[in-house]
Structure formats: C-alpha cells, structure tokens
Amino acid sequence: MLPVAYCQRVKMFIAMGVLNNTRQLALKAVRWQTSTSPFSISRSWLSTVPQIGDQNILLMGPPGAGKTSVGRVVAQRLGVPVIDVDDHVLEVTWKMPVADKLAEVGGERFLEEEGQALCKFSTSGSVISLTGSNPLHSGAMQHLKRTGLVVYLDVATDDIIQRLSRMKVNRIVGQEAGVPMRQILHYRKQFYEKWLDTRVLCGTGDTVEEIAEKVLQAVERYQNSDSETFVSTRSDNGSSSDSKYFSDVVLEGLAPDGGLYVPQKGFPKLDAREWLRLAEMSYPERALAILEKCIHPMDIPGTELRRMVFRAYGVNFASEAIAPVKHLIHNQFVQELFHGPTASFKDLALQLMPQLFAYCLPQMCNYLILVATSGDTGSAVLSGFGSLNDLDRQRVGVLVFFPEEGVSEIQKLQLTAYIKANARAVSVLSDFDFCQRAIKTMFGDSGLTGHLAMEYGTVLSTANSINWARLLPQVVYHASAYLDLFKDGVVKFGEPIDVCIPTGNFGNAMAALYAKQMGIPIRKIICASNQNRIVSDFITTGVCDLRNQPLIASHSPAIDILKSSNLERFLYHTSGGDGHLVRDLFTRLEKDQYFKVSESLLQKIQEDVVAGWCSEEECLAAIQNVHTKTGYVMDTHTAVAKAVADRLQDPWCPVVICSTAHHGKFAPAVLKALQCPNTHYNTSDPLDQLRELASVASTPRMHQKMLQCLKENSRGEHTVCQADFSVLVEEVESMIQDSFLKVL
C-alpha cells in the first residue's frame, strides 16, 4: 500500500496544477512500489563486472547443473569468496560426508536437517553454490533469499540426466525407489521457479565460462533497472530525459507527445543455443523465457510473470499447442492463432496483457481502458479484462468503441455479449479510423483527463496495440512458429522463413520484426492488405496518402483500416530511432493527410518488408481453392494473406501465413466462397450460418466458445452513437460513473 501522506500529496499537486498530465500519478506510484526491493541497486558501474557489496549471489539449480564449477568462475571474476553448501556448510556442520548423512537418516530427515543447517548459516558478499535440494526447504530459502540474489541455472533435463549418468549418480535426494530421474527433476522444477530472482537459460554445449558470463550479465541486469527503459517514437532521438519503465508504459498506453513507446535500446538477442532450448518447450514455457528477457524483474518479478503466463495460456485455449503451425500446401504453412476464447489472434496478447496491467496498477486511482476495434480486439479485451480477479475489476473499467457497420454480425454479437457494470461495447456510426482518432484525441486533451482525474479519481489508458504490453506478447508466437518448423524438420536452425500477415494496424507485422531482432531468422515480412491498401502502397512506394481515400467495407473487416498506428513504430525502427523524423512525418500526416519518405529510407523499409493487396474476388477464390485442394477452410483475412503470399513468396523459402481468426467469424463470406449447393449464405441468423458452415467444413473444427457466446447473446442489444467526439466523451463519463464511486 502507498503511504496515505503520499496519496494526499499527489491530490494536492493535482489541485495546484503541478501534475498536469494525470498519468504521472501511475508513474510515481509504480516507481515507489518497485524501489522497495530488498536487493540493493547500484546505479553506477566502474567496470563490466557487477558490484555486489554485502549481498550474496546464490546459484540454484538441479544436481549436475554446474553450480559449483560456475560459482568458482563467478567468484573469481568478482574477487569475492565462493561457498559450496555441500563442502563448506553441511559437511562442516555434520562432520561427515553428505552421502553418509543421507544414508544415515534417509531422504525426508535429510531435507529437514539440511534446511536447519542453512538457517543457522550466515555470510555476505559471497557467491554461494546451493545444493539441488536446498530449494525444497522453505525456511532455509527464505533465510538465504534475504541475503542476496537467487540465480537459477536452468539446464535442459536431458543434459542433466546425461551429466548425472557420466558422474555415475543414479539417485538424488528425495527420489524414491522406482521413481525415474526425469520425474523427480520435473517435480523439483516448481521449487526452482518459486525461489528464483533471475534465470540463466543454459544451452546444450554451453561451457562453464559461458554460463558464468551469463550469470554476471543477469546480475548486472537485475541491479541496473535503468538500463531497460522506453522512449516515445517522437522523442528527441532516443533522449533519456523522457524515458519510462515498463510498468509506466503499460499504464500510460500512449506517450504524452502523441508517440508510441519503444524500448530505448531495442530488443535483447538470444543466441542459437538458447533458441534450441526453447524449441523443446511448450508454448507457455517459450513465452515465459522470451518475456523474462523483455520485462525487467524490477517491474514484474519472474515468479509473478510465470503465474500470469501459465494462467494466460492454459485451458482457456482450445488447442494445447496454443498457436499450432500446420502444413497448408506446397511450401506454405498456416499458424492457427484463433484457438483462444474469442477465436481471434488478439487473444494471444489479451489473455496476458490485462494481468500485466493489473500488476502495475497503483493503489490511488481507477483506470478506464478505452479501445477502438475493427472487430476482434474489442471482444478479446473484454474477455481478457473480464477474467481478472474481483479486486482488480473494481478498479478497472473497459469501454470499447466499434463501427456499427464495420464488423461482421458474429463479431458484433461477441462484442455486445460482455455487458457488465464496468465493461461494455458501444457502436459508432462511422469507421474504425474515426473511433481510433477520437480515443487518441481524448488522451491528448489535458482538460478532459484532468477533469476525469479530479472528479472521479480515474485515469485513461488503452489496450489497443499502441500499448506496448499489447504488442509484446505477439512477439512470442512469431518466434514459436519458427521453432515449431525447426522441431518438425522443415528447416534447420538458421535457415530463413517468410511470414505473411494480413495487415491493418501493423502491430502483428511489428511483432514479427521484433522477433527477427531477437534472433529468429525471418527473411521477409509480407504485409497483405485488402482493397484498403494504404499500408501496401506505402511499403511499395514510400508514399502514405490518406487524401480522398474513403474506407471501403470488405469481407475482411479487421484490416479495414486506413491509418495504421504501428506504422509509427516501424518508421522509428527502420530510421534507426530518428524521433525528429517520425514526429515530422506524422505531424504532416495529421495536418496534410500525406507524407513521403526518402528513397534511402524506402530501401531500408524494403529490406525487411514487402507488401501486396488482393481484391474481394481474389480473397474468396483463395478460400475456395485451398478448400478444394486440401479440405482446409480459411477465414477471409487468412485468405487475403494467402493470395498475397502466392504472388510474393520466394518458392524456395517456407512461408508462415498468420491465420488471425476462425473462419466461423465470417461465415457468410466463407459460405459464399465455398459455393456450397443448397447453402443459403445470406441467412440473417448467425447460428444458422455456423451450422451450415459446419456441415460443409470440418477442418479446422468449429470454435465451441464462439458458438456458446452466440447462443447466450442472440439479440446483441447495445448503444449506438453518432460520429461526434463530444458524444463519445459523454459515453466515457457515463461509463466512469457506472463503474466507480464518485470522489467527493
């Protein structure tokens, strides 16, 4: 809890006008919370080796992980003592070899006496190599953890078993007769995950010296939280004066200058052996390993992140693989991103993002999440935030704006199914671009945000892909797709692939670029547009021209977008972090609805990305053609990507087509494409449409949670607003009044 005096002082500052940007409340609160870590933090460095002072470094891991050998090297590099718990604590205390003690008292008693010995042990400024069984004793680990940083040497189980075999160790502490070594190692892993402060992912073949270097880097990273900050795409060329922490940007969403947040130093890069470790992991394990590299533990501790990730990617997904990759035809593969609760790729981010958001919440404010959606984002946001616990839901409201005529009937029913006191969807008699522009205007209106903070104690935020916490989890599934292709023998590690993405707001494509930056061998990102081809034209010509460009309704409404927000992050990325340039370009776009990049920048853009578009007829033809040849049914957005991939793919390079939605969400168009006899695809009842579709299409299977949602919300009643900014502001204030108690 924040001190009462602090909260009162913040309210006073608001009244005095000192904190004009009310989102600063969240920033100050989160920094106050994270600054109370028990591990001392050094902000200055005299060398590349971390300075540990009176703190200990505790190396933890299973038997055979190399804790003793690595500990010696780390201690030598730091110039501090090294303590091996077996040799220097247990055998000294017991005055006998550890093996003899185990034989004398048995496994259960051994664990208790081992823990008691550690509870009496005290030292500082040392590297301590724990035993593999120390983490099984809660009291001992609580005692040790207070003295320093616990570093988990995460070694592959197969490597551990091979090492123990070479050491002629066939049983370890706690392993009953008849219990396989693999089973006891799997059992122990939960305890290592429980006590870690930071993880060192050890690849097969890593030397002791390489692991020791990773330990030193992990300790330095943990100590120096200032090394991982975020800046606006419109900042003065990466100036650190306006940098923010991860927990700050999660709550802010949009930067005060109108830009989007990006990591100041780019993405961390994993080496080949680390990626090979991830290839053997499940999707949640891959997600955890990648996100731990991207989220500083001072913002979200590893133990909390693990809890969130495994909750996000579990039984709520219809496929155990979460985001499976399947062979489609020839050298093309489809990554099915629609197995989440709302049958859309947005679930991959929005089952996790609300948990990240809730963890970062300060105690003093309520938050209203504003979302503009072209179809899928809205229902995924409502589902994700709706799954938060009761306490968090009391402080977080969600208001979604969607174009009344710009989503499919099934999408509309999904959106309007989530009507609660603190969550609702409202349609607007305009297009997605108007909804998105209105929300950005609200964020930039200091009079409005100040009024909401003073009157209701409420701060605005967003869950669109302009929010960094929305985009970051999408990096995981692009990496996972490549690892699946490697695991299945389609590519050798290091061989490139292409990724083809139906592109609207450019967040999905940007996530693929970030996966490439982390070390995934993506050759080209192929951006696929429908007839609303602003992005495609820009990547081809370097010209972004919104003048006299009406939005055209299509069979693929989720990419019916003219102004792509994440194009700003893309240009920041390709320009080498030129915030001046990005600010000038997008200021010009706001003013003139037009900008053009230089020829040299266009060449850089096309090094990573190519683009194309397809007509409505080509979209439907792609659905029919694939179904005829393979029996597989694509949705309309996947079909757009397939049609463009056919034209732009290098035939010698495998391409992963991102299937961003289940085909049932767009049943009328899919039925029309399949040209099924005796099928009335113009029926107005969505459930009838899905029944007809299920009768002719068996792969992929019908999405049961989507069916259930439609059965429970067959009427889809909702509020419809005029396309007037002031009307949308009234909806925001009404939503806040319904969600939160008014501040007197």
Note down, in words, how this protein is organized.
- β8 (325-329) and β9 (332-336) form a beta hairpin.
- The strands form five sheets. The chain has a six-stranded mixed sheet, with helices on both faces.
- With 744 residues, it is an alpha/beta fold.
- The chain is globular and about 85 Å long.
- α3 packs across α10 (208-223).
- The chain has 33 helices and 20 strands.
- Mean pLDDT is 89; it is low at 1-47.
- Pfam families: SKI (PF01202), THR4_C (PF24857), Thr_synth_N (PF14821).
- This is Threonine synthase N-terminal domain-containing protein.
Short description:
Its cofactor is pyridoxal 5'-phosphate. The protein is an alpha/beta fold.
Topology:
Blueprint: H1 4-16, H2 24-34, E1 56-60, H3 67-78, E2 82-84, H4 85-94, H5 98-105, H6 107-119, E3 127-129, H7 138-145, E4 148-155, H8 157-166, H9 181-195, E5 198-202, H10 208-223, E6 230-232, H11 246-252, E7 261-263, H12 272-279, H13 283-294, H14 302-312, E8 325-329, E9 332-336, H15 347-350, H16 353-360, E10 366-372, H17 376-386, H18 390-393, E11 396-403, H19 409-417, E12 423-428, H20 432-444, H21 446-456, E13 458-462, H22 468-487, E14 497-502, H23 507-517, E15 522-529, H24 534-541, E16 543-545, H25 567-574, H26 579-592, E17 594-596, H27 599-608, E18 609-613, H28 616-630, H29 636-648, E19 655-659, H30 667-674, H31 686-696, H32 704-712, E20 719-721, H33 725-739
Parallel strand pairs: 1-3, 1-4, 2-3, 4-5, 9-19, 10-11, 10-13, 11-12, 12-20, 14-15, 14-19, 15-18
Antiparallel strand pairs: 6-7, 8-9, 16-17
Helix pairs in contact: 2-11, 3-10, 5-6, 6-7, 12-22, 13-14, 13-22, 17-19, 19-32, 22-23, 28-29, 28-30, 30-31
